[in-house]
TrEMBL record:
<protein>
    <submittedName>
        <fullName>ABC transporter permease</fullName>
    </submittedName>
</protein>
<dbReference type="Pfam" id="PF02653">
    <property type="entry name" value="BPD_transp_2"/>
</dbReference>
<feature type="transmembrane region" description="Helical">
    <location>
        <begin position="212"/>
        <end position="232"/>
    </location>
</feature>
<feature type="transmembrane region" description="Helical">
    <location>
        <begin position="263"/>
        <end position="283"/>
    </location>
</feature>
<keyword id="KW-0472">Membrane</keyword>
<keyword id="KW-1133">Transmembrane helix</keyword>
<dbReference type="GO" id="GO:0005886">
    <property type="term" value="C:plasma membrane"/>
</dbReference>
<dbReference type="InterPro" id="IPR001851">
    <property type="entry name" value="ABC_transp_permease"/>
</dbReference>
<feature type="transmembrane region" description="Helical">
    <location>
        <begin position="91"/>
        <end position="111"/>
    </location>
</feature>
<feature type="transmembrane region" description="Helical">
    <location>
        <begin position="239"/>
        <end position="257"/>
    </location>
</feature>
<dbReference type="GO" id="GO:0022857">
    <property type="term" value="F:transmembrane transporter activity"/>
</dbReference>
<dbReference type="InterPro" id="IPR037294">
    <property type="entry name" value="ABC_BtuC-like"/>
</dbReference>
<feature type="transmembrane region" description="Helical">
    <location>
        <begin position="61"/>
        <end position="84"/>
    </location>
</feature>
<feature type="transmembrane region" description="Helical">
    <location>
        <begin position="188"/>
        <end position="206"/>
    </location>
</feature>
<feature type="transmembrane region" description="Helical">
    <location>
        <begin position="33"/>
        <end position="55"/>
    </location>
</feature>
<keyword id="KW-1003">Cell membrane</keyword>
<feature type="transmembrane region" description="Helical">
    <location>
        <begin position="141"/>
        <end position="158"/>
    </location>
</feature>
Length: 306
């Protein structure tokens, strides 16, 4: 039973990276913008957060640096696709490639760097509960922040006027513009917010989940987060559950290995990528279901006055 508790605990930690990044991309897509640059933003945020913690010894400044890096890259992306009307998909891919190269260059001097020792986190009393304590209540605060972000985003999107306006921009920007809403500005703010969350995910990855810097360490998680939004049919709670599902799949192989089951290392490397592909293939069998839930203007440029 203890091994299963450890598996659950590692699932929550692994899923947190995906959940935070996917929630950011969900905000983008709810506003009608597709950003394929999550991988690059997360890598730049990872090195920004890691370098900040190495220099300042303050992990919370590392999170802020990661969010700032993600938001800055997202702002650049937003200017290109929202005001200059460049192709969203091509621009996102360019941003991803830029992030991969720039992070590798910026992180050369931090490859051998070590973070300061961190204090283990635990929720008093609850952490001492047998089995449930190690599985649920001994995680870094960012694991619980991911849950709170999901709840907050649900409330924002479906219980506030600002959330309604954001969704209306994603569904029909022409109608929102006719009602006097600044569509481009709203989309730009959504893109920056999404980039900040992707940056937070990248900083968490390099400073908490795997506390080191290695070139390309995001290892496709940005693409998995992007797939998560479709898997979740653009609903925050499903994003969180899907992140834990994919995180659990990536941890399952290591759990089997530690239990004495002979699992090829190649299988461990590809397991977390196979799961999203299989799930998306199954969902794609019903395109009508995807169209009903997908923001109608997603990926489409908006030209005021056209």
């Amino acid at each position: 039973m203890e091994s299963y508790a450890l598996l659950l605990g590692s699932t929550l930690s692994a899923g947190t990276v995906l959940a935070i990044a996917a929630l950011g991309l969900l905000i983008n897509e709810k506003a009608g913008v597709v950003n394929l640059g999550a991988e690059g933003m997360m890598l730049c945020a990872a090195i920004a957060g890691f370098a900040t913690v190495v220099i300042t010894h303050n992990p919370w400044l590392g999170f802020l640096a990661g969010m700032a890096a993600g938001a800055l890259l997202a702002a650049f992306f937003g200017v290109l696709v929202i005001w200059l009307n460049t192709n969203q998909y091509a621009t996102g891919l360019a941003l991803s490639l830029f992030g991969v190269g720039f992070s590798a260059f910026a992180g050369i001097s931090f490859v051998q760097a070590k973070l300061p020792e961190s204090t283990p986190f635990a929720i008093p009393v609850l952490a001492d509960i047998p089995l449930a304590g190690p599985a649920l209540f001994r995680h870094h605060p960012m694991v619980y922040v991911a849950v709170l972000l999901t709840i907050g985003l649900i409330w924002f999107l479906y219980r506030t006027r600002a959330g309604l306006v954001l969704r209306s921009v994603g569904e029909s920007p022409e109608s929102a513009h006719a009602l006097g809403y600044p569509v481009r500005r709203i989309r730009f703010m959504a893109v920056i917010a999404g980039g900040a969350l992707c940056g937070l995910a990248g900083a968490y990855l390099s400073t908490v989940y795997t506390p080191l810097w290695v070139e390309g360490m995001v290892a496709g998680r940005g693409w998995i987060a992007l797939a998560l939004t479709t898997f979740a049919t653009w609903r925050p709670i499903r994003v969180l559950l899907g992140a834990y599902l994919f995180g659990g799949v990536s941890m399952l192989g290591f759990h089997l290995q530690s239990s004495g089951v002979d699992v090829p290392s190649q299988f461990l490397s590809m397991a977390q990528y196979i799961a999203p592909i299989v799930v998306l293939a199954l969902i794609s069998r019903n395109p009508a279901f995807i169209r009903i839930n997908m923001p109608a203007s997603m990926g489409k440029p908006f030209y005021p006055g056209s």
